[in-house]
Write a structure and sequence with these properties.
Number of helices: 3
Strand content: under 5%
Structural class: mainly alpha
Oligomer: single chain
């Protein structure tokens, strides 16, 4: 399945192709290390994306609660709390 075209995709593809071509010239062991680093970075990015998407509902609830507290006059400036 081919992904839809997005602006900038061609430049990213060219940069990635150049990086892969350069990495292909490295010894096999270094290629494996580089591949492991890249895969781990991509997995880390996927985990962060999942965590952020899962937290959006909670963040929205907290924001709504803060708005309601402000509108109810239950919020005070920090300097008044000292």
């Amino acid at each position: 399945m081919m992904a839809a075209y997005r602006p900038g995709t061609q430049l990213m593809f060219q940069a990635l192709s150049a990086a892969v071509a350069s990495a292909a010239k490295l010894p096999e062991e270094e290629q494996n290390v580089l591949a492991a680093i890249l895969l781990e970075e991509m997995e880390s990015e996927n985990r962060w994306s999942a965590l952020f998407s899962e937290s959006q509902n909670l963040l929205e609830q907290i924001a709504n609660e803060a708005i309601h507290e402000f509108q109810a006059g239950q919020v005070h400036p920090f300097d008044e709390l000292q």
